[in-house]
Amino acid sequence: MKNNFSNMVPLTEDSPKKQETVCIFGTGDFGRSLGYKMMQCGYSIVFGSRNAQTSSLIPKGAEVLSHTEAAQKSGIIIVAIQRQHYNFLAELTEVLQGKILVDVSNNLKINQYPESNAEYLALLVPGAKVVKAFNTVSAWALQSGTLDASRQVFVCGDDSNAKQVVMDIVRTLGLTPLDQGSLLLAKDIENYPLQLFPMWKFPIYLSLGLSAAFFFYCLIRDIIYRYVYEGKDFSFFVAISIPNRVCPIVALILLALVYLPGVIAAILQLYRGTKYSRFPDWLDKWMLCRKQLGLVALAFAFLHVLYTLVIPIRYYVRWRLNGYVISQINSNKTDPFNNVNGWISDSYVALGILGFFLFVLLGITSLPSVSNSVNWREFRFVQSKLGYVTLILCTAHTLVYGGKRFLNPSMYRWYLPAAYMLSLIVPCIVLVIKFVLVFPCLDRPLTQIRQGWERNSSGS
Amino acid sequence: MKNNFSNMVPLTEDSPKKQETVCIFGTGDFGRSLGYKMMQCGYSIVFGSRNAQTSSLIPKGAEVLSHTEAAQKSGIIIVAIQRQHYNFLAELTEVLQGKILVDVSNNLKINQYPESNAEYLALLVPGAKVVKAFNTVSAWALQSGTLDASRQVFVCGDDSNAKQVVMDIVRTLGLTPLDQGSLLLAKDIENYPLQLFPMWKFPIYLSLGLSAAFFFYCLIRDIIYRYVYEGKDFSFFVAISIPNRVCPIVALILLALVYLPGVIAAILQLYRGTKYSRFPDWLDKWMLCRKQLGLVALAFAFLHVLYTLVIPIRYYVRWRLNGYVISQINSNKTDPFNNVNGWISDSYVALGILGFFLFVLLGITSLPSVSNSVNWREFRFVQSKLGYVTLILCTAHTLVYGGKRFLNPSMYRWYLPAAYMLSLIVPCIVLVIKFVLVFPCLDRPLTQIRQGWERNSSGS
Amino acid sequence: MKNNFSNMVPLTEDSPKKQETVCIFGTGDFGRSLGYKMMQCGYSIVFGSRNAQTSSLIPKGAEVLSHTEAAQKSGIIIVAIQRQHYNFLAELTEVLQGKILVDVSNNLKINQYPESNAEYLALLVPGAKVVKAFNTVSAWALQSGTLDASRQVFVCGDDSNAKQVVMDIVRTLGLTPLDQGSLLLAKDIENYPLQLFPMWKFPIYLSLGLSAAFFFYCLIRDIIYRYVYEGKDFSFFVAISIPNRVCPIVALILLALVYLPGVIAAILQLYRGTKYSRFPDWLDKWMLCRKQLGLVALAFAFLHVLYTLVIPIRYYVRWRLNGYVISQINSNKTDPFNNVNGWISDSYVALGILGFFLFVLLGITSLPSVSNSVNWREFRFVQSKLGYVTLILCTAHTLVYGGKRFLNPSMYRWYLPAAYMLSLIVPCIVLVIKFVLVFPCLDRPLTQIRQGWERNSSGS
């Protein structure tokens, strides 16, 4: 709704009443943009600057004064200058006494300084109430009104009244304030806009690496081998046929890797006899990106579905099917219907459809708004129970696809097994271990350990 | 974003400053886990316990004292003990006077006790400010940092300052507090984590029942009948062909059942001449799970689409099409193009595509984050207008699919009509009644009644 | 979760304790419905009315008094009367002194009055604390408990304590209060429920217009032309074949129109040498509905995918393919495999699949809950980088589809080029300009301008 609101407010609107005066230190791009936006929403703006001259860039109607004069005009001072120029603020400690200082700064790198800019500001000006805000909004977005992604403004600070005042300003600008708690969290808020999908990096690099490896593997088996031994040019397979081998393989391996760390953690806990020891770092990190791994797997599965469904409209497939009919006619015999083939063909497709269906369900429940509306028990039911059913269905889909071909020596070109056989290794390992862990003799102690019981504990 | 935040905070981080001391009553699993997490976030923790000995399980750095001593050290006491052991707290009334008591308990069953645990606690310790919180977070999730589903912490309480203090702790732990209002709502908050999709049970059981019934119906008509009379084994139909009959049937019936209660309610209101009488309970419950019914219907429609799109890659279908071509060749004639068949084939497919498209649109608008961003008028437009168009398109899809076959006696094997004919009954009833209700002579009084007018009213 | 909560509370529940007395002015439909709901949640209700008689419509247990008497009984007065009857409230100024007045009114048209109803109320009764709330909830929804879309209650007001009191009532009713800030925002809140997808109108009308135009264009080329010159009746093409030409064309043009305003804005900024001049109004509006344009384009692309995937199950397509095989047999020759055709067929399909895949990704990231969980940098990465890759893939898909046919004169029926050629004009223009803008000699000054630099500036 916020979206519609600010869209409906014409940007040049004259607000009915001036609400209050806000002081902005710094006449750089962000200070000017913020001032411009605030004036549109009815605030009086005073800029504090080293050289107190109104330049053509300053929004019309705003005053430009020296820092001291400007600070005296308002109870709220927005510090829109860079951290390395904060020093002069220490000299203004007296005039800033009891006032609200809003730190809007960002850094260039994650964890650039030992403490956050806002905490540094609070140290410099001990008497002021420092609030961190607005750093997640871009100047360009404020200017143009196209605030699709950045409507949320994270606010933190130690003084709760000061936070309220700042959050009211945020709301008046048509943005959504999110109270993040005390100033301790300023570091997270400052790091936030510098991130570029941190949790997605490992899953995406892993999937790209797997895709490349299997792509070349299939290239060798399906194009180069045939070119060398059969003299046929199947180079156009790189467009659809090979991607349609690579995608399901990567999807199945990634899906299995979602459930592998849980299985490893269970073994570790059983071995250690306690849940209070920390997991190794790599396992912790792996467990934290399981959701992203699963969603990347879903993306590959989605591509596999599309690649599969277009098979009948491919020129090559139509040509081959026609050739098959013509060869039957010419040899004057019709192949009888093979009931086993009918069963295999239909059941591997049906398993794939059901697996993909559950996979999509899992993907939908990991949307933030959906996972927020289920409780812990429901979430575990979906992600654990349904997730394992999905893994079983997808593994079975691949196994039945293999069908009678597993032992067919013609499948081992240059002694290389078909790619789909390699993709079955990880899922089968996960499913076997999980199957073992489900037995009561292992499940019961594991449940106890996860409820806080310790094997070697004397206390409690 | 919360997600990324807490993921980036290393779990072993030494926090820069100790904020304040919080007391936790109880050294069970949840108490220890919460204490451990709070110490990571910079709090000092004092455990209150019957036997004040530090065991190996207590997080390092936390003190363990008697209940009274521990309570004196802090203004906030987290009561991490089970309800049946609350009694001893009545003896501590004096030392707990004016302090904030946080009830984190859960029950084993929904509505286990007449009043909520938090209200019971408030009765036991009248001078304390009781706040309900943290019960939706699992100890295991706190421990492992994998808080995907349970990032939301519902908070309620009668004292607004006490609530603020607790919500600040929640935020510092990297969780999202949601103020639910007064302590009256504690019962709902305590029931919440015990639910397992309460609104989904009826739609899912209904759809499974319908699926099973139609599955056996089709099994008899399509496999057993053919085996008995034609001696052919079509058992592999259970994988794709029969599911692809059952899915659209169940989807269409469920979609009609979404709109049936609205139509019944309109008739009831017209008959009673008022909207202020309550509907019968079954109708109330039915109306409340319409969204879930619709989403289950969408799931079946999605499966139907997948099952339909894989038709051309099935071995059986290819074999039959080849046989058809070969038989044409052998008999040396080519079937001419039948324009009527072209029209019927294309239009029933087109109707299905449009119906599924609108169905997906309806599904997307019922995602929580999407339905939150539309207003009442827009929601009604989509769910009512678009919904009926979807129902009309899907019913027409089925009718045209039937095409000329309705009166074909060969369709009535063992006097059983084809399954799709049965699926048309409910949608047609709904559409006919709705069509009648749209006439002004019925629509006008209905609109008046829904605006508060009463037929038999003298007052107002 | 809210959803589940209020669903679980039976509507006839007797609340354990009466919380407080709330006064409602007005016994119309909304006042009665709200009173009924509040009584279910444990409030005592006093109605203020001109004729203080209890009618049968008033919920049982509620008192009806004169306005003055009713107002004296409570600190909170909900004004459930229409704006044109507000005048009498001015006479009650004394008794309303210091009380909380909740304005729940709506207008019939957007911006019906110069100031909002709530601000008008605050002018009439200067001593009262006016809070705007509840106007987005419908009486019918309150009554029936089916509050799917309208669970959010926007609250604004100048007195922060009064807002808190009202927000607590909202929470107790099982609704979600959203603090919108000061009373200045009442106008937006009052306009909100009157909107019907304001940002979607332009994209939807544009897409319908384009669809109609291209539909008739294809009708002429594919059906009428053939009927006139070849005497064949292809009228059934209107069901699938022509929609499957129109959908991809409209999708591609709309997708290009998403990126055209950004390109125009860049040219304008380069020409003006500043980002501080406002864009023309049409450009501003265009930029604000880019998200909606993109989603409508995605809908058309989705339809195109469905229409394409059903091709092999169409009767016409099967008949034509069979005819092709039979003609090969009869002429006793088999067409050899054409490697170029294999490449073209597979690569245009593969480009389409990848384009659609990225398009779906873009659509998912524009879901409110997803776009709220990414920061500005991530959002720009997805919407700008991925968006352009999508546009390139989709344009390439269309170009390769054209393949060798571009210069084939048989494609120019009645001198009309094939429709897909027309669809390439806008995307190619956008991509060419974007390609030029990426060159450093233009990209560098543009980046500087967007960081606040001005070509003709002396100050700063």
From TrEMBL, chains A, B, C:
Pfam families: F420_oxidored, Ferric_reduct. It is a multi-pass membrane protein. It catalyses: 2 Fe(2+) + NADP(+) + H(+) = 2 Fe(3+) + NADPH; 2 Cu(+) + NADP(+) + H(+) = 2 Cu(2+) + NADPH. Its cofactor is FAD; heme b. Its main location: membrane. One of its GO terms (molecular function) is FAD binding. Signal peptide: none annotated. GO terms for cellular component: endosome membrane; nucleoplasm; plasma membrane. The chain crosses the membrane at residues 204-229, 249-271, 292-317, 347-365, 386-403, 415-442. GO terms for biological process: copper ion import; fat cell differentiation; iron import into cell; protein homotrimerization. Residues 21-107 form the Pyrroline-5-carboxylate reductase catalytic N-terminal domain. The keyword Transport applies. It is found in: Endosome membrane. Keywords: Copper, Endosome, FAD, Flavoprotein, Ion transport, Iron, Iron transport, Membrane, Metal-binding, Oxidoreductase, Transmembrane, Transmembrane helix, Transport. Residues 249-394 form the Ferric oxidoreductase domain. The keyword Disulfide bond does not apply. Belongs to the STEAP family. PANTHER family: DUDULIN-RELATED, METALLOREDUCTASE STEAP4. This is STEAP4 metalloreductase. It comes from Sphenodon punctatus (Tuatara).
